[in-house]
From TrEMBL:
This is Perosamine synthetase. Keywords: Aminotransferase, Pyridoxal phosphate, Transferase. Belongs to the DegT/DnrJ/EryC1 family. The keyword Magnesium does not apply. It comes from the Bacteria. InterPro entries: DegT/StrS_aminotransferase (IPR000653), LegC-like (IPR026385), PyrdxlP-dep_Trfase (IPR015424), PyrdxlP-dep_Trfase_major (IPR015421), PyrdxlP-dep_Trfase_small (IPR015422). Its cofactor is pyridoxal 5'-phosphate. GO terms for molecular function: pyridoxal phosphate binding; transaminase activity. The modification N6-(pyridoxal phosphate)lysine is found at residue 217.
Length: 387
């Protein structure tokens, strides 16, 4: 490539303390992980009930400042149930970014509804409230307070803002648009545990939100997720629906609807409790990594580090660089970095280009189509930030 980049690779390798290959995001277990998991095994309560599930839910609610958290098997199922509780039904539409992980759209499809793509902002990488408003003004007719897509005749029920790579989206403006068009807001906060918008934790603005504890996220339970809500009825229904809609009874098996087996096992929650204790340390190390990268890339022409938007305290879940295409070609850079042991990958292929979603309704997506060619995620594990 060039000497600047070769030096950068050497630097990052040094931060990785001699690792030959630096992964994108590795889980780290500095704290009580083994202790709690062992305790869970010794208690015999490894499955879908136990003290760690309750503890994780309580601690998560406390940390995020939400009233209720319901732990589930993964972030996708959390989003599925959150959308269902928000009232998303068959043949309705749900506004989502095209620039997101496929789970956002899949959760909409699991409700037999259709994703409707809208564009993102360059400053936040999340939904653009201005583009959203003008799109809705063009395509929506309101009937009895419900927004109908004039082109498809379908109800537009909800909007799913997603906090890309942990960077909070412009929630205040999005909430205004959602109110104008009577849309339910369900936040996809899968990537943004530890991220705050105007001092308030992401995932606490909408009616409901989903977080993820997958192995590559800010903290992990192996696999897992949670539904967040301030609404008591939603939280009760979330627990009910994710527990096969079983009516609690000491011995009878009665179920009052088709529910889901989505409850998080206690052994995963045990891991999660220890990880949540570590979150402040992870966040500190990730911030310090951001500073190191910022300095590193300030000396490299044609590459800049993506920094958190205004009003945001980002968890910097995945570090992201933006490339100037007159200097670097995305795929050449990816090849160079990956060949030299620096795992890196482009931002997701926008969902409107993917086979299952290419025929969905969509606004114009100029920023999405631009960003897909210039954003690259680079190694982001907390330990890389340790001085
Ligand atoms: C990770 C992720 C999910 C889904 O979480 P899982 O726990 O992997 O099911 C949903 N949306 C986004 C944006 C994600 O990054």
């Amino acid at each position: 490539m060039n000497i600047q980049l070769e030096e950068a690779v050497k630097q990052i390798k040094l931060w990785g303390k001699g690792k030959e290959f630096i992964p994108l995001h590795e889980p780290v277990f500095y704290g009580n992980e083994k202790k709690y998991v062992l305790d869970c095994i010794e208690s015999g309560w490894v499955s879908s009930v136990g003290k760690y599930v309750d503890l994780l839910e309580d601690k998560l609610a406390e940390y995020t400042g939400i009233k209720y958290a319901v732990a589930v098997v993964n972030g996708t199922s959390a989003l599925h149930i959150a959308l269902k509780l928000a009232g998303v039904k068959r043949d309705e539409e749900v506004l989502i970014p095209s620039l997101t992980f496929i789970a956002t759209a899949n959760a909409v499809r699991y409700c037999d509804a259709t994703p409707h793509f809208v564009d993102v902002e360059e400053q936040t990488l999340g939904l653009d409230p201005i583009a959203l408003r003008s799109h809705l003004q063009e395509i929506v007719t309101q009937e009895n307070g419900t927004s109908i897509n004039k082109k498809t005749g379908r109800i537009i029920r909800a909007i799913v803002p997603m906090h890309t790579f942990g960077h909070p989206v412009d929630m205040d403006e999005l909430l205004k648009v959602a109110e104008e068009f009577n849309l339910k807001v369900v936040e996809d906060a899968a990537e943004s545990l530890g991220s705050f918008y105007k001092g308030k934790h992401t995932g606490t603005f909408g009616s409901l939100a989903a977080v993820s504890f997958n192995g590559n996220k800010a903290i992990t339970t192996g696999g897992g997720g949670a539904i967040l809500t301030n609404n008591e009825e939603y939280s009760r229904l979330a627990k009910h629906l994710t527990t096969t809609a079983k009516i609690p009874h000491r011995w009878e098996y009665n179920h009052d609807e088709v529910g889901f087996n989505y409850r998080m096992p206690n052994i995963n929650a045990a891991l999660g409790c220890a990880q949540l204790e570590q979150l402040p340390i992870f966040l500190e190390q990730k911030k310090s990594l951001t500073k190191k990268y910022e300095l590193l890339f300030s000396n490299i022409d044609g590459i800049s580090l993506f920094l958190e938007p205004q009003n945001a305290g980002s968890n910097y879940w995945l570090q992201t660089i933006k490339i100037d295409q007159s200097v670097y070609l995305r795929d050449e850079l990816l090849l160079f970095l990956n060949n030299n042991g620096i795992m890196s990958r482009p931002i997701w292929t926008p969902l409107h280009e993917l086979n299952p979603y290419q025929h969905c309704p969509s606004a114009d997506l100029p920023i999405t189509n631009k960003l897909k060619n210039i954003l690259i995620n680079i190694p982001s594990s907390p330990y890389l930030g340790v001085e």
